[in-house]
Design a protein that fits this description.
The chain has one domain (2-219): Porin (Beta Barrel). An 8-stranded antiparallel barrel has the order 1-3-4-5-6-8-9-10. Strand 6 and strand 7 form a beta hairpin. Mean pLDDT is 81; it is low at 10-22 and 192-198. The chain is 11% helix and 58% strand. It has helices at residues 2-18, 191-197; strands at residues 25-38, 45-46, 48-62, 65-81, 89-107, 114-135, 138-141, 154-165, 170-179, 206-219. The two termini are 35 Å apart. With 221 residues, it is mainly β.
Length: 221
């Protein structure tokens, strides 16, 4: 619960500070995540599907320039074939985060409409991880890595994207988020990563996510 309250408080603080600005908008958004791991030890790791959903506030700071903080629930993770060297075994890990991006947004149309570009930092707070192994046609949940003792609970990332804001308030966008921070703590023994890589140590990997999002904004001009 504290992991959810903190980002909501951060968003409320930013929105409260910006309330005096004109053209402030609030909205909701959701979309599809295509996630994997990148980094030194990401060889053989594939993409997995997930979703994202949450809310945002957008307020102008100059003509065609705005700041947009968001709070999003986001599923990330990765998929691995030939898990533990077995050709008939597939492994998937689903990592659930609360993402808090604060984006600098450049709007090319009038009153924030039309094509836009966005870029900014993001803090992510781990909520849950859930692992599955599949051997042949039988799928079973693995209990090896359901606790998050060897995972970084807070990670820092960058976000970049492009989209289109419609006059109706509806927006569509494509976004990429890449973590600076590693998924797993370093120099710590780990069951799942050690078995995959044969080192007995956590791998050097980062979340890497492509996102297709749709949103709807209320208020403003």
């Amino acid at each position: 619960m504290k992991k959810i309250i903190l980002p909501l408080a951060l968003l409320a603080g930013v929105v409260g500070t910006a309330h005096a600005q004109t053209g402030i908008k609030y909205g909701v958004k959701g979309g599809y995540n295509l996630a994997t791991f990148s980094g030194k030890d990401s060889h053989g790791i594939e993409y997995k599907s997930g979703f994202t959903a949450g809310g945002f506030a957008n307020f102008g700071i100059a003509d065609n320039i705005s700041i947009q903080p968001e709070v999003l629930f986001s599923q990330k993770g990765a998929s691995i074939d030939n898990f533990q060297g077995r050709s008939d075994t597939r492994f998937k890990t689903t990592l659930s985060y609360i993402d808090v991006p604060v984006l600098f947004r450049l709007n090319t149309g009038e009153d924030g409409k039309g094509l836009f570009f966005e870029l900014g930092p993001q803090a992510s707070f781990l909520v849950r991880n859930r692992d599955f192994t599949q051997t042949g046609n039988t799928s079973t949940q693995s209990n090896e890595n359901t606790n998050s003792a060897d995972m970084n609970k807070t990670v820092i990332a960058y976000v970049g994207g492009v989209g289109y804001q419609l006059t109706s308030g509806l927006s569509l966008g494509v976004r990429y988020t890449g973590d600076f921070s590693q998924v797993y703590k370093q120099n710590a023994s780990a069951n799942y990563p050690g078995k995959v890589y044969g080192s007995g140590q956590n791998p050097n990997v980062h979340n890497s996510v492509f996102q297709l999002q749709a949103g709807y904004a209320f208020g403003g001009k």
